[in-house]
Specification:
- This protein is of the alpha/beta class.
- The protein folds into two domains: 60 residues, no CATH class; 104 residues, D-Maltodextrin-Binding Protein, domain 2 (3-Layer(aba) Sandwich).
- The protein contains six helices and five strands.
- It has a five-stranded mixed sheet with strand order 2-1-3-5-4.
- Helix 5 links the parallel strand 1 and strand 2.
Length: 182
C-alpha cells in the first residue's frame, strides 16, 4: 500500500514500507495479550472481513486497471527482436536488459547504484553491448548508464526498439555496441 502514492519512485515507498512494518510489529508485540484475546473471541463479522479485504485489494485493482487500459506489447516485441539479433548467452549491460531478457536467452548484467555490478560497470571488457533508453533520453533509467557510455567513447547505436516505460509509453530503447579498445 505504501507504493500506491509513489508509483514512479522506488526509495520512498520501500523506506515507508519498512517504517510501517517496524511500527506495526512494535504495536503488535506491545498489544499482543489484548490482541490475542480479541482475535480468539471471534468478534469478526463477515461484513468486517469483506470490508477489510476490499480495502486491501482496491489499490491493487486500481493499479491493474491503469495497466490494463494502457498496456502495450512493445517490450515483448523488443525482446523477441533481440532474440533474432543476439546469440544466446550474449552479455548485455543495463537495467533495461533485465526486462528485455524474458523472451530470449541474453544474459543481462544489471547495473544499480552501489549494487548489481556497479563497481565494475566501466571495465567490463567481456560485455560488448548495453541496452538502455534512447527516448525519453539516454540515462533515463539512471546516470550509471552514462558512466558506462563515458568509459567507452567509441560506442554507437546498433538498433533501436519501440518500448513503453514512461507515462506516455512512446519510448525507444537502444542496443549500443561499446566498441571499446583496451
Amino acid at each position: 500500500m505504501t507504493r500506491v502514492p509513489f508509483p514512479t519512485e522506488v526509495k520512498v515507498p520501500v523506506r515507508t514500507a519498512f517504517a510501517c512494518a517496524a511500527l506495526i510489529t512494535i504495536a503488535i508485540v506491545a498489544a499482543w495479550p489484548a490482541l490475542r484475546r480479541w482475535l480468539a473471541a471471534g468478534t469478526w463479522t463477515l461484513a468486517t472481513a469483506v470490508m477489510l479485504a476490499a480495502l486491501l485489494a482496491v489499490p491493487d485493482l486500481v493499479q491493474f486497471g491503469e495497466f490494463a487500459a494502457a498496456r502495450t506489447y512493445k517490450n515483448y516485441a523488443a525482446s523477441i527482436a533481440l532474440e533474432h539479433l543476439l546469440a544466446p548467452g550474449t552479455l548485455v549491460q543495463g537495467k533495461l536488459a533485465n526486462g528485455l531478457s524474458l523472451e530470449n536467452r541474453i544474459r543481462p548484467i544489471f547495473i544499480g547504484h552501489g549494487f548489481g555490478n556497479y563497481a565494475d560497470r566501466k571495465n567490463r571488457w567481456d560485455v560488448r553491448y548495453i541496452l538502455t533508453y534512447i527516448t525519453p533520453r539516454i540515462g533515463y533509467e539512471g546516470d550509471q548508464i552514462l558512466d558506462v557510455l563515458d568509459a567507452y567513447p567509441g560506442w554507437h547505436v546498433v538498433r533501436t526498439f519501440d518500448v513503453a516505460e514512461s507515462p506516455g509509453g512512446h519510448d525507444t530503447a537502444g542496443l549500443i555496441e561499446k566498441r571499446a579498445s583496451h
